[in-house]
Amino acid sequence: MDLGMSERVRALVEQVRAMVENEIAPLDGEYHAEVGKHPSGDRFQHTARQLEILNGLKAKAKERGLWNFWLTDSDKGHGLTTVEYAYLAEEMGKVHLAAEVFNCSAPDTGNMEVLERYGAQWMKDRWLTRLLDGDIRSAYVMTEPGVASSDAAQLAFEARKDGDDWVLNGEKYWISGAGDPRCAVYILMACTAPEAAKHSRHTMFVMDADTPGIEVLRPMHVFGQDDAPHGHMHLKFTDVRVPARNIVLGEGRGFEVAQGRLGPGRIHHCMRSIGLAEKALELMCLRGLHREAFGKRIIDLGANYDIIANARMEIEQARLLCLKAAWMMDTQGTRAAQPWISQIKVVAPLMSLKVVDEAMQLYGGTGISQDTPLWRMWTHLRTLRFADGPDAVHRRQVARAELRKYTNG
Amino acid sequence: MDLGMSERVRALVEQVRAMVENEIAPLDGEYHAEVGKHPSGDRFQHTARQLEILNGLKAKAKERGLWNFWLTDSDKGHGLTTVEYAYLAEEMGKVHLAAEVFNCSAPDTGNMEVLERYGAQWMKDRWLTRLLDGDIRSAYVMTEPGVASSDAAQLAFEARKDGDDWVLNGEKYWISGAGDPRCAVYILMACTAPEAAKHSRHTMFVMDADTPGIEVLRPMHVFGQDDAPHGHMHLKFTDVRVPARNIVLGEGRGFEVAQGRLGPGRIHHCMRSIGLAEKALELMCLRGLHREAFGKRIIDLGANYDIIANARMEIEQARLLCLKAAWMMDTQGTRAAQPWISQIKVVAPLMSLKVVDEAMQLYGGTGISQDTPLWRMWTHLRTLRFADGPDAVHRRQVARAELRKYTNG
Amino acid sequence: MDLGMSERVRALVEQVRAMVENEIAPLDGEYHAEVGKHPSGDRFQHTARQLEILNGLKAKAKERGLWNFWLTDSDKGHGLTTVEYAYLAEEMGKVHLAAEVFNCSAPDTGNMEVLERYGAQWMKDRWLTRLLDGDIRSAYVMTEPGVASSDAAQLAFEARKDGDDWVLNGEKYWISGAGDPRCAVYILMACTAPEAAKHSRHTMFVMDADTPGIEVLRPMHVFGQDDAPHGHMHLKFTDVRVPARNIVLGEGRGFEVAQGRLGPGRIHHCMRSIGLAEKALELMCLRGLHREAFGKRIIDLGANYDIIANARMEIEQARLLCLKAAWMMDTQGTRAAQPWISQIKVVAPLMSLKVVDEAMQLYGGTGISQDTPLWRMWTHLRTLRFADGPDAVHRRQVARAELRKYTNG
Amino acid sequence: MDLGMSERVRALVEQVRAMVENEIAPLDGEYHAEVGKHPSGDRFQHTARQLEILNGLKAKAKERGLWNFWLTDSDKGHGLTTVEYAYLAEEMGKVHLAAEVFNCSAPDTGNMEVLERYGAQWMKDRWLTRLLDGDIRSAYVMTEPGVASSDAAQLAFEARKDGDDWVLNGEKYWISGAGDPRCAVYILMACTAPEAAKHSRHTMFVMDADTPGIEVLRPMHVFGQDDAPHGHMHLKFTDVRVPARNIVLGEGRGFEVAQGRLGPGRIHHCMRSIGLAEKALELMCLRGLHREAFGKRIIDLGANYDIIANARMEIEQARLLCLKAAWMMDTQGTRAAQPWISQIKVVAPLMSLKVVDEAMQLYGGTGISQDTPLWRMWTHLRTLRFADGPDAVHRRQVARAELRKYTNG
């Protein structure tokens, strides 16, 4: 169970870390400050400067071969293991823009994986190539208003067969990335057989984002932020026609595709959140060492040594658990690794939230203001406690796996 | 130690609760949705509709005598005790707009208390009357960039004597309410004798908000929000002239005024945060009862019964502690009550944050979106863990009070 | 809602506190050190010195009228309210022997309450008088091996009618106090109608402890301790005959009696556990102030100020919650007070365990050794988390009471 | 960073696990039940049956070559790495007697390491050989009454030079194993130069346990238990003469020896505590699955799924952290591994205590009684939070290591 950094990935980690720190981080604030400054007043249009920043960085990364690391166990890309990727993802988690710069950001990686693994050749030609090149972006269209997503069998968005087409009607929301004008393709889960067995009711479609009949009702807000121009959009589909050949894998096999997509997606979030926690701990130490009150460095006041020690111990443990889950995926496959993925999916966001919260507290008001990146880290991490399944559901999976040891033997 | 709801306050509580629930809550969302819609594009201008909502509600409250409850132990207002006020403040905490509607909102109550207690008659005539009438608003100008506010002796914003005037220079930030065009008066703490003994260095000034030389550099953001039009402004003072008679209480007595102001201000926040936690618990129960997954009500899944029980037990305990601190203020005075105020200042925000966090989790994505008030509750409460002193400083006060029992005897 | 110390109880509290501190505490260690030194080698016999200590202290307490305080709302005893009793019980919680010295210890108080409230006159004459006088002790015989006591309907210990007698067969365990040679009376719950409705299956009997056919199988150990000579005995009943007139309240009404007994019993444990936590906090402060390491007082190292502040805040809150539950009992009755009793039953032991645990940690090895009373406090408190219902069951009650607000309206 | 179970150790783990489960566990209860049954009445004498059990098991283990695994990185023993040993120690942690059966128990392993690493040849001949053979046992004599052991420079037990001898005077306590009649050798730290620099004041002696002048004052109790016949003895030394050649490594080098001894000792405790937590989780699952209340399996009530999931996640993380610390020792040496050892020294006991506590709670009264091993697990683990340095001191080390990253660069 080698959880260490391999030699080949160590070189990549160093390049990525340097680029994140020296080239991406310095532009991250400017990028965000540009939001809403498009001449049209449309927050969901990138300004020229935003595109310049983003495209400039992406071009550099691609040129250096720092690209598509997430393609693990594949002949495309670097052919890394999931364990190796974890070390890279951690670095990318430290700055908001970084994952996209290396073409390793959600929801694209999951969507590319769906197309790569389950897509027909024409789908690959039409969308996957451009996604792998970073020329377009994508959205994963699953969540519905009024339905607990954790129980996906309840999803009711309708697709009805009509000749050679399927006709889609209903609402979807929290569609991350659907605000981005570069978002060209949707992978969408629809209910095609409401009366069928629980795991055969749904079908996965792939379609152009500009298919007629799709309307953006509003952006969903995350702690008051619209996350423009990325956005988490609330969409309405009215008689949207999609040809039958746009079905991924097969009618009634939506669940299977969704499951295959989720494992890697979940762990990638966790990997990045560990990097984010490292960044927060670094900021906390620096604040403690360089700020004074009552004639002492803040670090020497109160329980701050304990807070720092606890943060270090929890980061270290979460990282190792994440690496073990990755190693399970590499060696036993995603399905067998599920209980470990569920474990890290609960552990990593909770741990990172705690570290960021302590860092905010050490910074006082500054810690929740625009003068540090901590608030954005926090709100992002807080969403991870529901995204891809709420903690409660993952805890249930872990407990079930545990109890099976005694009931199946 | 009667911590119960007195008969006279019970009637007021019922009126306030009804008005909050039936008249204020239904308009709260609309009020916030109006932010940024002023024709000028200036987010720090109220729209006509905002003023209509606010002034309409305030007029009704005033007319009904539901006004200035915070004036405890006073011949003005209702002459309530702090314990009685606690029950009213709790109701006002449940909806964002409510405290202002009843002229009981921060920072005005603290500022009015300063003027009432320490102000010269001319100051009362000029500012206090209008504040008590709800015609103007105010700001408390203390925090400075680069200084740990918890160690107020470090505050360095300069006031220099120049003839009969004082000349103010420096920056102040996190000045809540200074964005509001109705904010007409500042109470400002400046360093007038940097070499003096620690608690004699500072002087409190009262001044018109439009005194020349004051510039708004920017609004400070709270988790990405500018809280417009209220705002937490970053101000720059350049050679701002204030006559000597504008000094409150006396030169070098700024600390004394600040201390007198802080006790009630701190506990009012706590009282409201308890109401807010009650509201969050209510929302959590309703979600649990009315949402289904896996064929069950969500409330019947996982650890939700325990989560609800824990929330109830923690709210109950925090409320009792808050009432005891209030009773100490009523019977022993604010100074003697300090350790209890510090206790509740630590306990109430942490407790409320936890309850709101659990409520968010039960709601899933909806819980952090614009579709529930939970996110705003959370970000507001998070600021309370530094505002008026970070938890660490209050814990230190509590511990010191405890240890004095053994070292002073 | 007056939760304060009334004038009449203040005087009693001072007397009790003084006697606990000056007369009981100094003998507590000696009393425990005598365990097992009876010439017979029987650990469940008091030594002469133990009886001398115990009887001497009891005689003094009785003579001073510091006796039977627990008889709240009664014309016997002091006629205190439950709130008033709480302040006394807190003092008695500080030293292991104290509650018995004042004839206020479990399980006698609960058993006396059963006899007083539900017992026939002959039962009172035969047992209650001597219990009130402190001449005998008693046991409550309910728990059975192999049955989750929290679901009392499962209790299966059999009583069969045979002429005018009932014949008892089965095992009972964790019968606290049944090891004490002074234990003269049992109140016992038996299943008399296994097929009846859930709450009519059981009947409560009162009987002499030396009724033939009762055998002590073994003492149950608590963290390795047999708590001799008090003991928590595992008993076996073989054809034990009890006349029908020994039934309390009526056949099939065992549940009703049990419920009536439990409320006060539960809260008394909580009251004492708060006193115990106060004692532990005192010990912790003294250790911190008087021990040195690395050239500093221990209190000035690490997070100790925070630990002390947290302890103070949690004790204060738990005490207030306990007082509120007591006040509910006084003003609304035990039944209506149930959710509050459940709350404090969860809160008080958890809180006290945490404070004692922190105190042990500050003492290092000494904190778990015979050189401090902390270990005994801890093991005693740990049992409270199941005794009279495990935390999980009480949390469930609290949650249900909460949810009823929304489902019954 | 291979943290997995190597092939060679896998075979050993299977043998050890089988022997622990099938041969040692069934006798563990009987062994403990024999305590105090020696005909002399002396609890610190093994009964014939105890010796039969112990010697029988040891002989089998030795014969099978399941012996002295702890000798890592050595040409004696199995030559295992510390990572490999961790997997074995985990199995040994599951049953109280097991570590001794395989000659891998504290304090012998630490003492053998001292002799092996720093001892003169004659010391090895006289004591080490017999210790390695399991013929005698040993004690480490360091802790003193009245001194915070974490600040070892304070230790004041005196050794004075007198001709060719040193004369020892003073008290030592918490000397684990010194109650055992088989304990034949002491390794003792004495203050030989109170005025010297902090780390040169002390000298380490090795000596026969029966050297004249040593008196056992009493056994220290752990939560009321004397842990006979092992014991944690309080010793008094009166003019005890030890020849100068009995000094280990050199005069004034006691600290160096103590430091070298501590690293492995600390991590071995952690490894075993992880096995113990696994055992407790197993017991918890079995109870939940096989006990019923309210018509359901207990596991299906309340928050039990969450409790089990949390236990699994915390065990998994602690194990990985322990393995990483072991790997650091293997690859970078004990000194460089210190911050990781400190981390796991805080994490493992806290985690295990929590798991055992939850297990006890699920068992109710049974969980703290002699009918399950949980109480003994708990009290043992509780001592680990001070043994070899209290949590607070290890947290401080971890924080310092963290902050050095920013201050030394």
Automatic annotation (TrEMBL), chains A, B, C, D:
Its cofactor is FAD. GO terms for biological process: fatty acid beta-oxidation using acyl-CoA dehydrogenase. The keyword NAD does not apply. Pfam families: Acyl-CoA_dh_1 (PF00441), Acyl-CoA_dh_M (PF02770), Acyl-CoA_dh_N (PF02771). The keyword Nucleus does not apply. Keywords: FAD, Flavoprotein, Oxidoreductase. InterPro entries: Acyl-CoA_dehydrogenase, Acyl-CoA_Oxase/DH_mid-dom, Acyl-CoA_Oxase/DH_mid-dom_sf, AcylCo_DH-like_C, AcylCo_DH/oxidase_C, AcylCoA_DH/ox_N, AcylCoA_DH/ox_N_sf, AcylCoA_DH/oxidase_NM_dom_sf. Residues 139-236 form the Acyl-CoA oxidase/dehydrogenase middle domain. Coiled coil: none annotated. Residues 252-401 form the Acyl-CoA dehydrogenase/oxidase C-terminal domain. GO terms for molecular function: acyl-CoA dehydrogenase activity; flavin adenine dinucleotide binding. GO terms for cellular component: cytoplasm. It comes from the Bacteria. Residues 7-135 form the Acyl-CoA dehydrogenase/oxidase N-terminal domain. Homodimer. Belongs to the acyl-CoA dehydrogenase family. PANTHER family: ACYL-COA DEHYDROGENASE FAMILY MEMBER 11, MEDIUM-CHAIN SPECIFIC ACYL-COA DEHYDROGENASE, MITOCHONDRIAL-RELATED. This is Acyl-CoA dehydrogenase.
